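re: that chain from earlier
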Amino acid sequence: MFEKALIGGKRYWSLIGVLLGLIFIAFICYLWQLKVGLMLTGMSRDVSWGLYIAQFTYFVGVAAAAVMVVLPYYLHNYKAFERITILGEFMAVGAVIMCMLFIFVDLGKPMRVFNILLHPTFHSVIFWDMVVLSGYLLMNIITGWMVLQSEKNDAAPPTWVKTLIYIAIPWAPLIHTVTAFLYSGLPGRGYWLTAIMAPRFLSSAFSSGPAFLILLALMIKKYTKFDPGREQLQSLAKIVTYAIIVNLFFIACELFTVLYSNIPEHIQHIKYLFLGIDGYGKLILWMWASIIFMVLASILLIVPSFRKNERILSLACGLIIVGTWLDKGLGLISGGFIPNSFGHVVEYWPTAPELLITIGVWSTGLLIITILYKIAISVKEEIG
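^ sequence. v structure.
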């Protein structure tokens, strides 16, 4: 089936060319970072995790969200999702590869990756995060490809494939739970020290991931002959609606607990993000925008007539993607480090090379998703 990725129109090859161009620019910036070191980024001694880890955290959630189409189809026999299950699995493949690349560029020296493999630390959460991510990547590649091959041959997939799918279903929330434990397991960071960090991660993942999938499905519907289906998109939209409301509820619970208790080491992080401290407040506008975007998107999705309008649905999904990214990506990381343990404010902002490397990793993930979708859609069109 690989040959199907080599056949495409002008629009397809133009997209491939743009993505390869962005990847090349990012690679040049990475070589620069490799030579100079992480001082090329906006990170410092006080803020040692920046945009790279923020993207890693966010896209782990996007990858985990594939379970929201796999679970209804395989466990609850919801046949409508048959048309988009493969899209969810292949989206997860691209997202996990992006996660791994963000860890790779954040480590500074590539050889440090081999240290994790050659000298594993079994009580380290990052080690287990690598294990569950690698396992999830393999499961999605194998199951997605085997199911697609079976559809092409008009045959049932092997029995062991369905067994692997049943293992992958609980594995999906596990990868994001372990990622949440990376933060909530650090006692010196008050902003992250909360028991509902994992539930917050999952609720934001189950809203942003399906929102991504809806936008991808709408693009496929517009530019190809394959229609993912209106019922399928509306079912996904309902999942997004419930998940974003739960996510907002968890945020409200966090804010009430912090503000009502008035514990200094907790409230200072919230104050910096939403009000600023001593004139420092680079993230104030972005954090308020995050809340506004998520609230507005939930209002649009709650109203059935708005949700059924594909333009409004696209807008709501876009707002959720940006809103959750600002909250769980940029805000979560910076909020945990600022102010530092001594109460001093050392702000963080990504540099131009850091942004270009990040765009390059995004482009790599989108390139993989584009190629896999081209293969899957070509097979679907043949079957149709």
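The chain has one domain: 2-383.
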